[in-house]
Amino acid sequence: MTPHWLRALPRALPHAPHRTLAAAMTVALAAATLVACGGGGYTPTAVSQSSERRALPQSLTTRAAVNYSPYRTARNESELGSEVITPANVLQDLRLIQATGIGSIRLFSSRAFARTVLEVIRDNNLDLKVQLGTYPNPITGPAAEADNIAELDAGIALANQFRDIVATVSVGNETMVEWSTHKVPVADMARYIKKVRDAITQPVTTNDNFLFWASVPTAIADVVDYAAVHVYPFLDTFYNPTAYDWRQKDVPEAQRAQAMMDATIAEAKSQFERARKGLVDLNLGTLPMLIGETGWAAVDTAGGPNLAFRAHPVNQKIYFDALQQWAQEGRRDAQGPKAVFLFQAFDEPWKQGDDGWGLFNTRREARYAVQSLGTCGVTWACEAGSYTAADAVKWVAPTVNPAVTAGRYTLYSEATVADQVVAAGLRWDPFALTGYREDTSTAAPGDGSRSWEITPNPVDFGWGLFQYSASGVTENLSEFANGRLNFAVRSDSYPGKIEIGISTDTEDREVQEVFLPIGPGDYGYCNTDQWCQVSIPVSAFLAANPKLDLRLVNFRFIIADRFSFTGKPLNTTGLPKIRVDGIHWAK
User: Fold this and answer.
1) How far apart, in whole angstroms, are the C-alpha atoms of residue 78 and residue 427?
2) Kindly report the CA angle at 461 between 460 and 464, in degrees rounded to 5?
3) Are the beta carbons of 74 and 105 closer than 8 angstroms?
4) What pTM value is reported for the model?
5) In the chain, where are the structural domains located?
6) What is the architecture, at CATH level 2, of domain 42-391?
7) How far apart are CA 305 and CA 561, in angstroms?
8) Which CATH architecture fits 408-586?
9) In this predicted model, what pLDDT tens digit does every residue of 33-92 receive, in sequence order?
């Protein structure tokens, strides 16, 4: 699955989080482009159009399925390599998965932890089948190509060694859809798929979004035994909010949650059929298809795309139950999905704002979606919370609070100022590992004795810190449209630009945001280890994103440095601390 905040930043591992609040990008696929790049002179043997196509094993097509990774302690992508994956923890995970009635798991990579998982299955005689993944990355040179070949070779070795457990093998994870953050050219992917298929006996595919399969290049269709299709209508409500009518505004509120979930399942099926049409267009309408990823988050995770009115344990259960019904229908229908791999088994903290999709949380407590499949306190520990179907969340119109009429709306300041309102009920949250604390050693001139000290601690894409209402309470700052967002800042030679942003709700509950990159000299900003006053016209934010609704401001202040937007190389480190003070809106 692609990171939820920004589908335009690179990543090295599946589901790597890019902790940003970047504006959602359109996910429309340029079919002609994909078809064109499917040529390139590559002429593999067309296994999918011949009797050589390998049938999906019954052990895969008769079982409930889930995507699985065992990460528990890593807090970000950079810590993944140092997390120790123990057989005991994997065994606990797999037994919990089995207790739900799930009998197939999908692994993303062949080198990170796959051998441990397969050995645990073998050594404990667990009745689990595996879709093994191999994970090629963009080919940036000979070293990257060699690393990809090493990954493929590892998958080949495991598929052959664990032939009774590995039911199928997938090469790549969302590497070819237009918005992929780790694209591999179609000709190279075809070459990789064929290399693996030539060396094993199991059926082989590639996992990709339905938009890719909807216009699948012949070069790929000719070398796969089946199609593994990803459908995420849940995320499309954010990235492509007009894809389908998820809000169901015309349905009475008492029935709206179920109507929303029904519309979502209908959209998932529609996406699957669009993928099938891509195969039909190549005279491959009988090629077996399964759902490689789909899911529903139980938590609207801070720092990710705002998915309020959608993410909830009850909504997750409604979707989970509907998927099981769809999977049963698919087994009976020649045109249906032969299996449905739910995303995902367990929460993984390293994903940060991309987390909260698990049937179990990080503590291995069963979520509401699966609790009824066992007994709380016996089969498994259960996540706290008591729910009924009536607790499902749904779209509701926003509440517009009375406008702030004071001349100043203060977020962080010790200064005593007439005609001000001091914001209440707000909290600070970081992107990734950004450190923050009150510093009593320095403050902006005339603003008391304290300031806010920010330690960037960037991850690959950058860093950031935002002040907002965690409960979603918005402030009506519409009377500040002609005013300014002000703050004092001090940094010692911080390189290049930083970003200052705000975010608002809207009538349709589509969160809108804007980040303004500012460098030394812009709006008063400096990096000379002296306090300087920054004053940004609110009109500059509105010009950058006219969809902002100042009646519904939630993220009152954001300071960040997302390297792809400020011109810094990814993985930049060694950034100095930044201090801010006197943060306020003024008319």
Assistant:
1) 26
2) 115
3) no
4) 0.79
5) 42-391, 408-586
6) Alpha-Beta Barrel (3.20)
7) 18
8) Sandwich (2.60)
9) 333 333 333 344 455 555 589 999 999 999 999 999 999 999 888 899 999 999 999 999
